[in-house]
Write a structure and sequence with these properties.
This protein has about 450 residues and is α+β, with helices and mostly antiparallel strands. Among the domains are: about 150 residues, no CATH class; about 60 residues, SH3 type barrels; about 90 residues, Alpha-Beta Plaits. Helix content is about 60%, strand content about 10%. It has a five-stranded antiparallel sheet. Strands 6-8-7 form a three-stranded antiparallel sheet. Helix 2 packs across helix 3, helix 7 packs antiparallel against helix 8 and helix 8 packs across helix 9. The protein starts with a helix and ends with a helix.
């Protein structure tokens, strides 16, 4: 590096000694009374100003005239890709290369006697051109991303992650080239020097590296797509995926908030993807009614005659009673006690009624599992679970179907002598107190009435 600086100094000294004075501006400055050195520097400065002025005019023409021609061509073209490239300002960035190229190639003719100035300005212009090229690449890749996200073939794929990787790689290459120019070393030497800082780079780009690996696995295994409904309790995410990029996945929750989840979390943590539900076109209903155990009883003759009036289970009650009667007769069961032999229960009748109701419901998919089952009894009663699938997966419609089913079943339970369990509330205690007070008052009235009769007797 020191040798290069000494060489440049020698070149500068030689240039200053042999600096040509055959220039109209030089003669003009000399006529104005400027010294020889001042005239030399003023001449060079004037040439640079004129050069940059020409470059500015060329840039203006490029952006106004050339881009106007490109815009008119894009509008007439039937190809949609050039429209995207124009909207993403790819051509605008390319237009900035033209004035830089003019300055780069015109400098040797203007500063032909000052080699050190040519080298320095060439480096500055080259760095500027590298930055412009990086901008063109980034905008071009953004245009590719825009096209890919709207192409059926790549629908739901993490295109943004791959685009960000390419942009990052281009920035790294551009940074290496700029550093190599500034320090006067080859790019290979710079890359070799970076090898010693690998640990630091891994720490700095940890999320990007993890995100890249996760994006590849997500894409290869088709785990998440744009538009999927996902649920991740750990991150409070429950909604549609609206963006997948290198480091994060954005989820728009149902309350319209947006949760940002690290991309690698979809590999490291558990999450639920509801895409299968949307693909199948059905949505599961799984909810239980809690029956008060004290209301469960055998079906006597009076209850059976009432159940036969229920059209949904009339045939089942008659057939079931025939089977039970045949069994009890064969076993010579004493029918005076319901506990003897086999008998129907009001809970079993209600369970059969609920199943029949689901089987004839127009919004329940009969091709999927339809079931009414008992779960483990608990302190809240006996759970009677409804398990079926709605044929309408729209959230509002689904909730309406589920609510209609349970509205009907809750209202139907008392018809079977059953009571849906719920913890007592203040109103229940109030009614109990009023009932107790009323009974106590009736008892007191009877006692006083009895005393009055005894006195009259």
């Amino acid at each position: 590096m020191e040798d290069e600086i000494e060489d440049l100094k020698e070149v500068k000294d030689q240039a200053m000694e042999s600096l040509t004075l055959e220039h109209w501006a030089y003669d003009w400055f000399m006529e104005l009374g400027a010294s020889q050195d001042m005239a030399n520097y003023l001449t060079i400065a004037l040439d640079l100003v004129l050069l940059f002025l020409i470059a500015f005019v060329v840039d203006f023409i490029g952006r106004r005239v050339i881009l106007s021609f490109v815009r008119s061509y894009v509008k007439k073209s039937k190809n949609e890709y050039d429209d995207v490239l124009y909207d993403k300002k790819v051509f605008t960035s390319l237009a900035h290369l033209l004035p830089a190229a003019i300055i780069y190639y015109a400098l040797p003719y203007i500063l032909e006697d000052l080699a050190i100035s040519i080298v320095l300005i060439h480096k500055i212009i080259t760095i500027y051109m590298i930055v412009v090229v990086l901008t063109v690449i980034a905008r071009f890749l953004r245009a590719v991303e825009y096209i890919g996200l709207r192409t059926t073939r790549f629908q739901g794929k993490p295109i943004s992650s791959y685009i960000q990787v390419f942009i990052l790689l281009s920035y790294i290459v551009g940074g290496v080239l700029i550093i190599s120019m500034l320090v006067g070393k080859s790019p290979l030497t710079i890359i070799t020097a970076f090898g010693a800082a690998t640990a630091v780079l891994l720490l700095v780009f940890r999320d990007a590296i993890l995100g890249l690996v996760a994006s590849i696995q997500i894409s290869a295994n088709d785990m998440v797509r744009l538009g999927d409904w996902v649920s991740m309790d750990k991150y409070g995410a429950d909604g549609d995926v609206i963006e997948i990029n290198l480091t994060t996945v954005k989820v728009r929750n149902w309350d319209k908030t947006i949760t940002t989840v690290p991309t690698y979390a979809f590999i490291a943590d558990s999450f639920k993807n509801w895409r299968g539900m949307e693909t199948m076109g059905v949505r599961r209903i799984k909810r239980a009614l809690h029956i008060d155990l004290s209301t469960v009883s055998f079906v006597d003759d009076e209850m059976r005659s009432r159940f036969i009036k229920f059209e949904r289970i009339r045939g089942y009650v008659e057939k079931r009673q025939q089977e039970i009667d045949a069994y009890n007769k064969a076993q010579k069961v004493d029918k005076n006690e319901l506990l003897n032999g086999r008998h129907m229960t009001n809970l079993g009748m209600f369970r059969r009624y609920a199943l029949a109701y689901l089987e004839e419901h127009p919004k329940i998919d009969q091709k999927e599992t339809v079931m009414v089952r008992q779960l483990q009894p608990s302190e809240t009663g006996l759970p009677l679970e409804i398990y079926c699938f709605s044929s309408d997966i729209a959230w509002v419609n689904y909730e309406g179907i589920q609510s209609d089913i349970f509205d009907h079943l809750i209202a139907a339970a008392p018809k079977f002598g059953l009571r849906v369990f719920q913890n007592p509330s203040g109103a229940d205690f109030g009614r109990l107190r009023e009932s107790s007070t009323r009974k106590q008052a009736e008892k007191t009235d009877k006692q006083e009435g009895g005393k009055s009769e005894n006195l009259q007797g």
